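User: I'm writing a tutorial on reading structure tokens. Could you give me a worked example: one chain, its sequence, then its tokens, then a sentence or two explaining what the tokens reveal?
Assistant: Sure. Here is the example chain.
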Amino acid sequence: MTLFYQQLVMSNVDPHARTSPISCIDIKWSEVSKKLSGLRTGKQCRERYSNHLDPTLKKSPWSAEEDMQLIKIQATMGNSWTKISMEMPGRRYVHIFGSN
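And here are its predicted structure tokens:
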């Protein structure tokens, strides 16, 4: 299902945006949902892509450098996990918050 899902996502991306990294904003998630016969909502499709299928995500275990970076950023930003994730390319808030 993952390949099919990725193909649905790409078919709903503006053709001009395909040459640059895909932003979740560029994708018509309601259209992806319709093509899945309504089995998932647009929001569920967006979250699945953002947190699991996005090719820019790092799926490897956390490195010691990333651990130190996370500790340093958390010390200055507190527990604002979404903001922290913006400082850590390839990691989403759900991965950062659940990394302990």
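What the tokens reveal: The chain has two domains: 2-53, 64-97. The radius of gyration is 15 Å.
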